[in-house]
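Quick one, probably user error.
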């Protein structure tokens, strides 16, 4: 089971777009069983799949805040066959407050997903912030994908995430955690975007995704209709690009598994 988190504290860097469409592609086109976990108060992962998350209950907040609630009580199907969802909404705002005093507050998500069975992939959609929620995600995941919008401060944000990942690895002894891919997003051909892209390639020669996600209005439209790109515009340029990114993530699986094994072995 691969556990992959889409993380960037910068808002609007395409975390949800990539998490949802990659999860749906794996389920639809690779016959995989996929669980998509939304950890954001905005609830956009559910909304992108046409799930009305306003006032929805139970949500991932109940799973994380109530010791009696188990994952099977919260998981729900989606219009995409093979894709299940742990939905979120603004209820999630109570999580950091309610669990603040618990000694195991950083490992709550990991604990709740520890005996998860029957899935090939668990995909996490992170909120645009670094804090207790993101630490929980990093401890529940083994791989991190960083989507980076091609804007001026992008490189700063990326360096900070790498630092946080290293911190979490050491502080919680989660050596298997690694950044498996850095995806350039919202690219438009400008001198600045090209400069940022070149720097990103230099900084992350191994992790950088070969496919760059360009600006494509159909991707935005698909979300506004609560559909994946595979439903809304399956032959569009946006769909082809998102598929290439999903394929690249899939192909990185064996490398990731090998280094996770090595990390576990060196811990023993
Ligand atoms: N390739 C693209 N071309 C045009 N618009 C896009 C593209 N990818 C995503 N968008 C749009 O950009 C906005 C932000 O994308 P998304 O919600 O995936 O980012 P995010 O990182 O999850 O944001 P947040 O930090 O708020 O959770 C959305 O409205 C989405 O539809
Ligand atoms: Mg999002």
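Nope, works fine. Designed sequence:
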């Amino acid at each position: 089971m691969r556990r992959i988190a889409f993380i960037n504290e910068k808002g609007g860097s395409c975390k949800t777009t990539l998490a949802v469409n990659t999860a749906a592609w794996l389920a639809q086109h690779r016959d995989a069983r996929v669980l998509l976990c939304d950890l954001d108060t905005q609830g956009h992962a559910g909304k992108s799949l046409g799930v009305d998350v306003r006032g929805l209950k139970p949500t991932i907040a109940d799973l994380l805040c109530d010791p009696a609630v188990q994952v099977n009580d919260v998981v729900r199907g989606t219009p995409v066959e093979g894709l299940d969802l742990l939905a979120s909404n603004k209820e999630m705002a109570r999580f950091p407050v309610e669990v603040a005093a618990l000694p195991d507050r950083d490992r709550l998500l990991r604990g709740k997903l520890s005996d998860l069975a029957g899935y090939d992939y668990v995909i996490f959609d992170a909120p645009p912030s670094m804090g207790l929620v993101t630490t929980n995600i990093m401890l529940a995941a083994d791989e991190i994908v960083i989507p980076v919008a091609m804007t001026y401060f992008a490189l700063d944000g990326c360096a900070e995430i790498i630092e946080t990942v290293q911190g979490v690895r050491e502080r919680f002894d989660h050596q298997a955690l690694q950044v498996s891919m850095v995806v350039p997003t919202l690219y438009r051909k400008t001198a600045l975007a090209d400069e940022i892209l070149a720097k990103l390639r230099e900084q992350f020669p191994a992790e950088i995704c070969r496919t760059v996600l360009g600006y494509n209005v159909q991707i935005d439209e698909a979300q506004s209709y609560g559909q994946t790109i595979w439903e809304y515009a399956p032959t569009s340029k946006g769909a082809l690009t998102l598929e290439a990114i999903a394929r690249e993530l899939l192909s990185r699986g064996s490398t990731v598994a090998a280094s996770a094994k090595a990390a576990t072995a060196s811990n023993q």
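The pocket of magnesium ion (ligand 2) is lined by residues 15-16, 40, 44, 125 (CB under 6 Å).
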